[in-house]
Protein 1
Amino acid sequence: MKIGKLKHRLYQKFFRRAGTQPALTPQSVREFKETVWQSPEAASRYSEAVSRISPGMQTELDVALGFARGRILDVGAGTGRFSSSLVRAGLPVTAIDLSADMLRLASASDHAPDCARASAFALPFADEQFDSVISFWLLLHFHEWPRILSEMLRVAKPEARVIFEMQNASNLEHACRITGDDRLVPKNLSGFQTFLKFEEVESVTTRLGAGIVWSRHYDLFSDNLIARATLGERYTGWLDEIQSALDDEDCRRFWIRFEAEHLPHLPEYLARKYLVVLGKENREPDHKQPAKGDEFPTHLVASTPAIARSMRLFLEAFAPACPQLSDLFKLECAKTL
């Protein structure tokens, strides 16, 4: 069972228990999400879903490995998909999640973090305890994401880095222009996610007393709404094909490098999300390039069947929204000559 089907089934259970379909409010969203995430069956299905590494997931991990240092707190760690990799790299990590079943799986890892069950809205730590605080796939689920970020900043030391990601509102807005309606806008508890412009996130972080020291748009393939809008009913089949190609490690690394090298120069609406690294006292821009995809050997750019197939599939989904991509890929292919 895929995560989407699992959420739909739990969504129906939630309605039966509530006796009605609740309005889409901050309170109802939070209650529904927390109910779903604490379901025993959600943990195993979630673990299965994240076992298939995507370029977006790898980029998130590379950024965490590039910026995180010292004692690390992973907020909303789930089954430990990021925590265990950081522990493997020799970093001390504390993982918190609301789901006991998720944390049980995280604790069973060969590189298990220290685990604690807690809500991200009320972290059980004193002020200024951690050298780095990370959170992926959490803040974007809530209207009240600034409350979580405020807690993350509270427990971070003055010189700490705080790392998270957010859904790109430009991706949604441009997809709606393609479809000519709002069919892709989340309208129920099951599908709710927050979409924000970068400037909106920047405004909130400034109000909370932090500054953005590094950021980057990324993620072309994880439920990208431009692809959904362009392909329509063909999207599901296209997604299966592209995921099959991305199972090839060289192909995955190619797309990590492609996003790092080219997305800064392409329309920002192509990217599904953007990564943000915050500083508290030290707000000087950090120019490091943490993504390991930059190390991908350029002579392999289009020389494997998986990469060539993925390039064709990518153009099918994205070139109608951004015609300059066709010329860009001619240059990419020329690197193999």
Note: Residues 197 and 319 are 23 Å apart (CA to CA).
Protein 2
Amino acid sequence: MQVYDPLDVEFLADPYPAFAWLRENEPVHHHPADDRAPGFWALSRFEHIWDAVRRPELFSSASGLTFFNDEIGQLGIPPTMVMLDPPVQTQLRSLIGRGFTPKRVTVLEDRIRTFVRARIAVMDRLAADGAPVDLHQQLSSTVPTYVLAELFGIPLGDQQRFAPWVHALTQLQNDGFTLDVEGSGGAALVAMAEMMEYFTAAITDRRTNLTDDLLGALVAAEVPGPDGEPQRLSDWDILGFCFVVVAGGSDTTASLISHSITLLSEAPDQRRLLLDDPGLINGALIEFLRLESSVQGLARTTTADVVVDGTTIPASEKVMMLYAAGNRDPREFGATADALDVRRAIPRHLSFSSGPHFCIGTHLARLQARVAVEELLAAHPWCTVDAAAGTRHQSAFVRGWLSLPVADIG
């Protein structure tokens, strides 16, 4: 029997056999407390997760998104949008959505494509010199860092400060927002303070000198309030959104890019389909995410006793929504749920969650990944990676890479 243990290194190396066992044997699983983490529940079937995340009145985000206690309190900041429930979350999301539009993101495509081509040129020079080439470090992880800096309107001279913030906050997220002040948690706190100070000053500037970037759009965004008067985002609302996008949107996008090439390295027949018809790439990204979900799972907290598949989960319990397990559920995706099929029709999936907390940055993540995969396959149609030689994050909540060596530049 494959054991589900989200803090075990062997489980994290390949969680999918354990997820399959849970789906078939304990779809509503109680994970006991130990010296590493408190006890919690876990849902692994697609339909159970799909239903739960769409019922925030029973499965709340307001107590944090991990199985650890008091993650919001440890951060020492007010709850961000992803840690709120409707109707407050709905109103805040509506305001943010006025500034963070697909149109605003789409205009970045040409700049993203130019940046990606430049990064591929760096890989080419390394390969020509006989030096090691790392897909994740030299391409995938650089794209979202660049794009977020451009999106927020960070001046070129300040962009070198942005990458360390992204790295530290990503590590904080991957650690489940638990703060080891002597280790990575201390660095994350410093990075968070620096980033908040920088963005606070930038927001203050935008309120008097409006600019055509995302910060400017968020400062200007307004919706009618309950009394008919316009409501705008507070400084903290904007800061919280910046925190969410940097911590939650950087490494997940980078991992999507790297996983795309990892999966294609193992399935040359599927790669051939994309080379013959690049128009399939956009849809294939969802298939890549389905098989290798960047976010493996996040928690909700029950607000009352809830019965799922005949099992009662008591009130005030943390419940992990195992998106990665649900995304391979044969009840939803058929007998080939574990296989890559770039032409698969996917009307529903859990890679961006669902319901009120459906990922607000979906359009941005897909744009970056599409451009990166398109350009890499155009330049190096048969580029492959050595996944066995790569290094992964050790995280209960996300699945991604720290390094991913190129086996053949193709």
Note: The chain has a mean pLDDT of 90.
